Structure formats: C-alpha cells, structure tokens
Amino acid sequence: MARRSRSIDTSDILNRMETLISGTDNRYKITVEVAKRAKLNRKHAKDNDLDDMDSMPKPVLRAIIELSDKMMQPQVLAD
What we know:
The structure is a single chain. By secondary structure, the chain is an all-alpha fold. Residues 1-5 have low confidence and may be disordered. Helix 1 packs across helix 3 (59-69) and helix 2 (27-48) crosses helix 3. The N and C termini lie far apart (41 Å). 63% of the residues lie in helices and 0% in strands. The protein has one domain.
C-alpha cells in the first residue's frame, strides 16, 4: 500500500468540522451534506481514474474542506 506524500493537518480538519457544525442548527443536515459530497468526490475520482490518488486527501476530508470553504454561502447550509 502506498504512503500518502502529503500530510493532512488534523487540527485544521477538526476546526473546519467544528465550524461547519456550529454554523448550522441541524447537525444531521450538515452530516448528510458532507456524506453526499464525499460520495461524489469518490465517484469522481473513480470515474476519472486519477493516477495521483495517493496525494489527494480522502473523500470525506475533501468534503469537509470544500464545505468549510463555502461556509459563507448561505445556500450550502440552508434548507
């Protein structure tokens, strides 16, 4: 099994997840949104047969990063 060449800052991921959870009044909805985005990320990686998969974060981590980056857009967390 190949080692990941890029390390992920776990404290940054935890802070991002805390920001996501505290930014909404419904933990279930944000959890479902992260899961949906992770599933799409995984499908996208498989469909494109990416060679540099080892250098990319896992789909769930990528989903957390993407959603926390879009935290300022209310339509992401609304509904």
